[in-house]
Amino acid sequence: MVRDVTLRKARRPWGAATVWCLVLAVLFFATYNATNWFTAQRASVGVMAFDWERHIPFLPWTIVPYWSIDLLYGVSLFICTTRYELTRHALRLLCAQLICIAGFLLFPLRFSFDRPATDGFFGLMFDTLAGFDRPFNQAPSLHICLLVILWYHYARHVRSTAGKLVLHGWFALIGISVLTTYQHHFVDLVAGVWAGLLCLFIVGEDVPAGDARGVPNAGRRWRATHGHVEPGRRRLARIYAVGSAFCLLPAFSGYLPAWLAWPVAWAGAALMLVAAIYAWGEGAHFGVKQGRRPWWLRALLAPYLLGARVNVWWWTMGLPAHVPITEGISLGRMPLNARELEQGRFDSVLNVSAELSCPASNIGHDAHPMLDLLPPRADQLEVGADKLEALRRRGTVLVCCALGFSRSAAVIAAWLVRYRHVPAADAVRSVQGRRPQVVLSAEVIARLQQVSVIQA
């Protein structure tokens, strides 16, 4: 009986994969053909291409890797080992379809180069493609958007070095083929990459069911409502949304040169994601896990992360990187590099910043991401204090956030309350006495008073 149960749990979700495959296929052909037809009826459809793209060679044989994404798309659903993985992957593919179709309708573009005549087998493939893929609806490239999602998905299932080399080589060839088959302009490729990364962001990674104390972990679940969310979160979300608009509007106005419009649009898109996190997410949506952030999330948020680093330098220049507080616990800003972190001779570091990740080093890391400029909740302070206590038992600990003025100070104060039974006001004064720049509001002190005490 136990063996039968184990086999049932290990069985791949073939049936669900088949259903998803049929649903996504119908949706793909219905929406893609409809938007192609709709755009073809428009009186004027713009073109966005660089002069240097005319020097890109037309390589008929690259239609094979271009077409191969259709096979990879279908197979990708059947290599999922669990229903949960299948659902996440299918939702990403669905998200890609919705985002790209929206882009086609809002900002229609067309391909402007004449494709040379092609004979033989490759010519047949081009003719078949032309039967349903008209030269409209270019940006963001759905082909590239799906490529990003599939590349990420397959890379998680290929283990051997040789397999990874073949995988990355073939997927890179698919990416190049959208240019060498004269299917897309370069701007479509870049927009497609960004759209694919956005899908990975929206449909996030797996999360544990709960923390060590059995408390459900909703850190990566998006909120559907603002009903019970503090007003400060709404205000910050609006500020970041306005900042995004101030970047995106001039970027798409057509008045900025291309070399400037690209980074401005990138910054606006990054701020839009930050606004979404403050509106519906939690600190975990910034993706810092075990001291590091996924490469694709670093790419999406790069302009914002750069601004956050500059902000750290601006506010903390001339101040000590960290100061000792009590019993092997130090408080500081985010270390600038591994050398600075290792010079502090810490045994471990607890990063409570959501937006910044610690530099890679040989020092043990733990993360408890909390959003900046928001007073931590009592339960967040308790979890932070518990993580700090666990690290402290192994040796000296650096607790850091962006500036070392608020979130990290609140966690140390919570540790004093929870494990040393210090009154909240006294704990705050103790931390501020060591680092005068610490700012903990009356609301934070009130929440420190709600922190439960661990009896010895």
Automatic annotation (TrEMBL):
<dbReference type="InterPro" id="IPR029021">
    <property type="entry name" value="Prot-tyrosine_phosphatase-like"/>
</dbReference>
<dbReference type="Pfam" id="PF00782">
    <property type="entry name" value="DSPc"/>
</dbReference>
<feature type="transmembrane region" description="Helical">
    <location>
        <begin position="91"/>
        <end position="111"/>
    </location>
</feature>
<feature type="transmembrane region" description="Helical">
    <location>
        <begin position="295"/>
        <end position="315"/>
    </location>
</feature>
<feature type="transmembrane region" description="Helical">
    <location>
        <begin position="58"/>
        <end position="79"/>
    </location>
</feature>
<feature type="transmembrane region" description="Helical">
    <location>
        <begin position="396"/>
        <end position="417"/>
    </location>
</feature>
<keyword id="KW-0472">Membrane</keyword>
<feature type="transmembrane region" description="Helical">
    <location>
        <begin position="12"/>
        <end position="32"/>
    </location>
</feature>
<keyword id="KW-0812">Transmembrane</keyword>
<keyword id="KW-1133">Transmembrane helix</keyword>
<dbReference type="InterPro" id="IPR020422">
    <property type="entry name" value="TYR_PHOSPHATASE_DUAL_dom"/>
</dbReference>
<protein>
    <submittedName>
        <fullName>Phosphatase PAP2/dual specificity phosphatase family protein</fullName>
    </submittedName>
</protein>
<feature type="transmembrane region" description="Helical">
    <location>
        <begin position="162"/>
        <end position="180"/>
    </location>
</feature>
<dbReference type="InterPro" id="IPR000340">
    <property type="entry name" value="Dual-sp_phosphatase_cat-dom"/>
</dbReference>
<feature type="transmembrane region" description="Helical">
    <location>
        <begin position="264"/>
        <end position="283"/>
    </location>
</feature>
<dbReference type="InterPro" id="IPR000387">
    <property type="entry name" value="Tyr_Pase_dom"/>
</dbReference>
<feature type="domain" description="Tyrosine specific protein phosphatases">
    <location>
        <begin position="397"/>
        <end position="446"/>
    </location>
</feature>
<feature type="transmembrane region" description="Helical">
    <location>
        <begin position="136"/>
        <end position="155"/>
    </location>
</feature>
<feature type="transmembrane region" description="Helical">
    <location>
        <begin position="186"/>
        <end position="203"/>
    </location>
</feature>
<feature type="transmembrane region" description="Helical">
    <location>
        <begin position="239"/>
        <end position="258"/>
    </location>
</feature>
